Amino acid sequence: MWILFGTSYNTVENEPYAYFIGVFNDLETATIEKEKLVSEKRHSINDFFIKQADLNKIYTHEWSNNCDI
After folding, report:
1. Helix, strand, coil share of the chain (percent; to 5)
2. What is the pTM of this model?
């Protein structure tokens, strides 16, 4: 399972934080969606990232704020 996140800088401290976009069965589909968001929203490719996740496992907010892919 692959999770697509976006990065926002709209905080009081102007620090980046991750927000959830979607869950995908494979990396190829997640990458296609990421590229679509970059072209449609005119954001940088660095504003989105994909992380691999396992079913039935608990993840923290800190986990989502660390970019793997």
Report:
1. 30, 30, 40
2. 0.76
